[in-house]
Design a protein that fits this description.
This protein has about 325 residues and is mostly helical. About 40% of the residues lie in helices and about 0% in strands.
Length: about 325
């Protein structure tokens, strides 16, 4: 197979080569995890995605038209792990990465970037060959020891002690029980969501716990503001987006009050009073009286509900 030209060679080459290099950079950053640096989809993602990622090296150009690839990268493909990149990449970048894939993997079958090189600090990578079968999935990691040769046992030990840091696991016979992380309590370690320190202030959550300021709230809305910020902001965030720490990790997430385009005061009051089934939104009728519910609803409608939606209702 033909080797990919170096950066120096590309810089001195044609505009087409420059586009090729740019497409390769995008591919190596966005696409390698599923499709592999070599485009053959021999990746960890292949072991758990159904259907598996496409192997471009075994896909003829005639079988996959360029227009279809452009659409797939832009919009994704339904019922697969292929996500759409239309909101991440520009139209030009999508063309660059598609053209790179078509030339490098589907057309001329060129060599792409390799990580385990001398330049990356991996002289004589072949000395770790005993661990390769466990990285590629050729041998399952949970194969009983008695079924392995002494060399394979040593290879698995090497893989588990060193290679697994980056390679995770390629293949097992028994997937075991699924494990899903779930929040169990409010963050500890001194995290103060109202007065973020230098560390927590760098998170994407603290900015949503800043109380919005209004100069023209009515007496009813001002009363609702106090009730909301003391009670409801814990889940919905001080700015009503639900994108604070607690709101973001609830299942389902706390409602983003700034997106309730069809909400009315009457409907909102009913939700506050009686809660919402199959969510963490409780009924507040045992905590707030009718006047307080009316005040909270008035504040939410004034502070968070899009004004254009309210204007249409009127």
């Amino acid at each position: 197979m033909e080797a990919i030209p170096s950066t120096v060679e590309i810089a001195a080459g044609s505009r087409a080569q420059t586009r090729f290099e740019r497409g390769r950079d995008i591919y190596n950053y966005r696409c390698y995890f599923c499709h592999g640096y070599a485009g053959d989809a021999k990746t960890l993602a292949k072991t758990y995605l159904d259907p598996p990622p496409r192997d471009f090296t075994s896909t003829p150009l005639s079988q996959l038209p360029r227009e279809r690839m452009l659409k797939s990268v832009t919009d994704g493909r339904m019922n697969t792990g292929m996500a759409g990149f239309g909101e991440i990449l520009s139209a030009e970048e999508i063309e660059l990465v598609v053209d790179f894939v078509r030339e490098a993997f589907m057309g001329e079958h060129k060599l792409n970037t390799r990580y385990h090189t001398v330049g990356n600090g991996w002289p004589n990578h072949e000395r770790f060959a005993t661990a390769f079968p466990f990285a590629t999935g050729e041998i399952a990691l949970d194969t009983p020891v008695e079924q392995l040769t002494p060399q394979q046992v040593n290879g698995r030990i090497l893989f588990m002690n060193s290679c697994i840091t980056c390679h995770d696991r390629a293949q097992v016979n028994d997937e075991g029980d699924a494990w899903t992380p779930r929040p169990v309590s409010f963050p500890r370690a001194g995290y103060d969501h109202r007065q973020p320190d230098a560390i927590s202030g760098a998170t994407p959550y603290s900015q949503h716990d800043v109380v919005p300021m209004f100069d023209n709230l009515t007496a009813l809305e001002r009363k609702g503001e106090g009730l909301f910020q003391q009670n409801c902001a814990f889940c919905h965030a001080a700015n009503g987006t639900g994108k604070n720490w607690i709101g973001s990790f609830m299942e389902p997430p706390a409602r983003d009050l700034t997106q309730l385009h069809g909400m009315t005061s009457a409907r909102l009051g009913d939700v506050i009073r009686n809660g919402l089934v199959n969510t963490s939104m409780p009924a507040w009728r045992g905590v707030f009286n009718d006047a307080q519910i009316e005040a909270v609803a008035a504040y939410v409608m004034r502070a968070f509900i899009p004004q254009e939606a309210q204007a249409k209702q009127r």
